[in-house]
């Protein structure tokens, strides 16, 4: 029996869940009416599996809903409070942002960008990034943001795939006190791409740049641009953006999202989950280069007229208290981050957050990976002071917005550390076995989505076939998420990691997430990753990697003994790793997720595959060395 926390915000609106149960399509029809449409739709859902068209016939604009609708009541309200790691900061009101976006829309038009064109945005976390996105959506261009940490070849692949007419970049960005040059990366990425007509360069770091004939300077273009540009009336199904997935499990996929359905999903979930009020200061740490940044840094908060903090730089730079400092300084009320960031903050100890005034925080959120219960409890206690609900939000680039989450804005339910609670209203999720049958309570299976939902991807960019096979072929007329989950006796969903990450030891299936959580719950461990290597007798044996807490003084053999005992007690002898390796870091994607596929490949002596989204090559080398040691020791034992 797991512990449960009952922390509500007193905003219960049982109507919403109730209404969604009777007819989900008419339920979403009602939700869509909360946005501003130029023309109402004629059909709520046209479902031609696996292709959905939401709010067909309706005319809408994302930028209009994010900006124009606030010009009466929130003109002077801060939309974006931006701060960089250097301390440089800027506040843009809803009016400022509206003006900038209209000007930049005119800039894009002056360079020949028309409705339907793609525009690649390769910028650091500066206000010009959301400005570029909103300008694209204002004129009906499809934006495709590429995380600014990517290499030239990754960027090239994405520009080539989307055939963007324009690339927007900057001379560079700041990361850990250093200038990361971006313009030379773009130059390399677009070499011989005649379809790229211009590169718009923002001078962010004021360093020398080589200007090529295609290059235009942001400031020069903006100087002469008119600040009036009406928003295009776009079909609800008009492609709003293409976003490539994190690449945790393979080659990144170009996920395509439409407009009306996506906005409805984001508007609804942002309000329900974050219980947003006009007085809130929202702080999401995600980079806009990932879907969390699209949905809950750009569109969600702006659709609601919220004030938000955007931070440029590493979350622990110039010091590990950077996030707490920002919360205190700007009196943030809602904080949304990832388990990987939380594990890092936890590693630094409680003293740092305890020395800041975090009392304005009233709601906490997490996304991106299963959150280990130990980390959840730390977040609840040390950051939330045991008074804030935590929303653990499960969703994917493909789902557009949250699909499983507690929703303090509309209902109060007990929270259980490590569970995302229940699906949002208006969607149907299940956990099934290989044949597609529902599994009994507390049994692990595949997480699937049974009905179309408004935020769902339209397809993979110019690859309907891959869209069908990747998501709709494992189970008939059902969306396959690729994740494992179980549903407990109270109907709560527990995410158990990716379906291709499972370990099979002596006929037993062991979830990586469960085992890693057990290891992380040891007081001296900050992070962990496990994977299997082939074994003639058992099928697979488990190898674990662990990163120690900053203050850990124990020697590794004592620690290994303690951990093995803990695993035997908490999960069972079957889950005992053959070896535990202590490493200084784990191989992670740029979005902070552990790349288990890579551990597995190294372990099985396979080629590593596409590592374009990998964060730090050093971690791979470290893990590779560890594996060579294991292989040597296995050979030694056998001889
Ligand atoms: P790729 O699809 O290229 O391998 P990715 O799946 O990491 O990349 P995203 O769409 O950014 O790309 O991430 C979605 C995935 O992240 C989910 O399928 C799930 O595995 C994981 N995830 C997201 N939120 C949660 C959560 N709250 N709990 C558990 N897992 C989560
Ligand atoms: Mg995925």
Automatic annotation (TrEMBL):
Q: Might you give the EC number(s) for this enzyme?
A: 6.2.1.1
Keyword field: Ligase
Keyword Ligase applies: yes
What is the protein's given name?
Answer: Acetate--CoA ligase
Native organism? Candidatus Nitrosomaritimum aestuariumsis
This chain is encoded by the gene named acs
């Amino acid at each position: 029996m797991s512990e449960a926390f009952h922390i509500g915000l007193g905003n219960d609106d049982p109507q919403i869940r109730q209404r969604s149960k009777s007819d989900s399509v008419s339920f979403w029809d009602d939700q869509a009416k909360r946005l501003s449409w130029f023309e109402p739709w004629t059909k709520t859902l046209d479902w031609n599996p696996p292709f959905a068209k939401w709010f067909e016939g309706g005319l809408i604009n994302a930028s209009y809903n994010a900006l124009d609708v606030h010009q009466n009541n929130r003109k002077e309200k801060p939309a974006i409070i931006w701060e960089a790691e250097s301390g440089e900061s800027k506040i843009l009101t809803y009016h400022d942002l509206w003006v900038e976006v209209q000007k930049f829309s005119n800039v894009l038009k002056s360079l020949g960008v028309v409705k339907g064109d793609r525009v690649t945005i390769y910028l650091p976390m500066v206000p010009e990034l959301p400005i570029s996105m909103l300008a694209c959506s204002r004129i009906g261009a499809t934006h495709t943001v590429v995380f600014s940490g990517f290499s030239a070849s990754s960027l090239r692949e994405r520009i080539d795939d989307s055939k963007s007419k324009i690339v927007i970049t900057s001379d560079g960005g700041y990361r850990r006190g250093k200038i990361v040059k971006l313009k030379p990366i773009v130059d390399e990425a677009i070499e011989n791409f005649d379809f790229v007509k211009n590169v718009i360069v923002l001078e962010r770091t004021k360093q020398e740049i080589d200007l090529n004939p295609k290059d235009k300077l942001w400031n020069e273009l903006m100087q002469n641009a008119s600040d009036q540009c009406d928003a295009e009336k776009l079909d609800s199904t008009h492609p709003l953006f293409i976003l490539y997935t994190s690449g945790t499990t393979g080659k990144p996929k170009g996920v395509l999202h439409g407009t009306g359905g996506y906005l409805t999903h984001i508007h609804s979930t942002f309000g329900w989950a974050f219980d947003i009020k006009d007085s809130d200061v929202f702080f999401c740490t995600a980079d806009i280069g990932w879907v969390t940044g699209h949905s809950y840094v750009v569109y969600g908060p702006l659709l609601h007229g919220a004030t938000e903090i955007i931070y440029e730089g590493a979350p622990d730079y110039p010091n590990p208290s950077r996030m707490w400092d920002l919360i205190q300084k700007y009196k943030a009320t809602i904080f949304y981050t990832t388990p990987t960031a939380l594990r890092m903050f936890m590693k630094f100890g409680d003293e740092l957050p305890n020395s800041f005034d975090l009392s304005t925080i009233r709601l906490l959120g997490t996304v991106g990976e299963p959150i280990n219960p130990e980390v959840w409890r730390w977040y609840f206690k040390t950051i939330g002071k045991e008074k804030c609900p935590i929303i653990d939000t499960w969703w994917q680039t493909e789902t557009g917005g949250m699909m499983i989450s507690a929703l303090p804005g509309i209902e109060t339910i007990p929270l259980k550390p490590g569970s995302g609670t229940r699906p949002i209203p208006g969607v149907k999720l299940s956990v099934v076995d290989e044949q597609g049958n529902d599994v009994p309570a507390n049994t692990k299976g595949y997480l699937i989505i049974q009905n179309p939902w408004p935020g769902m991807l339209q397809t993979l960019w110019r690859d309907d076939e891959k869209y069908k096979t990747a998501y709709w072929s494992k189970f008939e007329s059902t969306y396959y998420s690729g994740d494992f989950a179980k549903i407990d006796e109270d109907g709560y969903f527990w995410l158990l990691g990716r379906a291709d990450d499972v370990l099979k030891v002596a006929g037993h299936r062991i979830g990586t997430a469960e085992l890693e959580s057990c290891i992380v719950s040891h007081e001296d461990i900050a992070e962990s990753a496990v994977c299997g290597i082939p074994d003639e007798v058992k099928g697979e044996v488990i190898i674990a990697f662990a990163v120690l807490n900053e203050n850990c003084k124990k020697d590794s053999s004592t620690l290994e003994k303690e951990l093995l005992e803990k695993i035997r007690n908490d999960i069972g002898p079957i889950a005992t790793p053959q070896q535990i390796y202590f490493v200084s870091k784990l191989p992670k994607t740029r979005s902070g997720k552990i790349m288990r596929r890579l551990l597995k490949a190294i372990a099985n002596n396979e080629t590593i595959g596409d590592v374009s989204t990998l964060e730090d090559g050093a971690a791979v080398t470290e893990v590779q060395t560890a594996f060579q040691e294991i292989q040597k020791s296995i050979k030694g034992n056998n001889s």
